[in-house]
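hey so u asked for the seq, here:
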Amino acid sequence: MNTNLLYNATIIFVCLAAFVLACWWLYRYQKNKKTSSFIDTLIGASNPKEKSKSKNSEESEAVQKAIQNFRMSGLNHIFSEEELELIHYDKPSQITGILSYFSTSLFDKNNLDDVLWDIVENCISHLHLEDCVIYILDNSRKVLIQKAAYGNKDKGGRTILSPIEISLGQGIVGQVAQSGEYECIYNVNYDDRYVVDDISRNSELAVPIKIDDKVVGVLDSEHSQEGFFNEHHILLFQLIAKLTAKKLAQIDIKNTSNITNDDVYFKELHFLMKEAKIYRDASLGLEGISKMLKVSSKYLSQMIAKLNGSSFVDYVNKFRVEDAKSKLKNPKFSNYTVLAIGLDSGFNSKSTFYSAFKKYTGISPKEYRATALETE
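ran it, structure tokens below
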């Protein structure tokens, strides 16, 4: 009897000891894991690879921040401080990108139809909307006329399918033109003013286009989704309406000056060339850089010609040649072939590299390297 009792007590003791040991081991493991994680974090900060990643990330953030500052500066002469503040707190990168492209795509448009169709084709289409119509007010008849459209109303060839006229004060669009205030309708099915155009939809946003506080038109969009339009859409439509008004005002007084700030966009381009070294991408052409800058390609080409006095190709190749020159005389690149240096600097072939290099230096890359080495 005593033997069984002793046996059972021993078993219980062993189990308890094992349990305590397991708990102690788990505690030590968790503690070591936390300590190890902390040490790894410290090591990571001094580890060359981690440090390099961190540095690249910081440089990328700095570049993006600089680009955003350039774009905001480019809009300073168009929008008020209050409007710029709203952009800053909404979706600055998306909004400034759209507005930059919009303003630069309009730079060479000098008649009403070109301006309005460019808005719906090159700007509104970027907003992923189902429908958008621009109305212009005919003051003599007191009616709003559909002048440009995106979506089902776009018949192609810059013509509108079954265009309609809306009297001033009629429907949501007519009331916006009359009041001068925007309207965002969550569900048009509960609004008696709603006028069906091509098809019936569920929500609508209408924003007035004003010149000197007088309504000259309305920017209107409908969507099949109930409550689709939000504060972001309202802000963006108001800014687009203001840009549209500014351009239309220039046409009225036959002012051919641009609504863009060429200097700011050129500084942004120069920054990307010098700091981000985008010229090293051999596949990057006019279209690629214009998308990066959020400007139209035609505007980019003419801006470089105007402010730099050269073609786009010459402008980019000068950076590539300077990059190649610095590498050809740098001992760190002594094991690189001349061609490898040219390709690394952004040229896509030996012939274009040699041709551009000789154009700007008067000698071949091979001769330049030999001369540089002799000098040293």
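The longest strand covers residues 214-223. The CA atoms of residues 102 and 119 lie 7 Å apart.
lmk if thats what u needed
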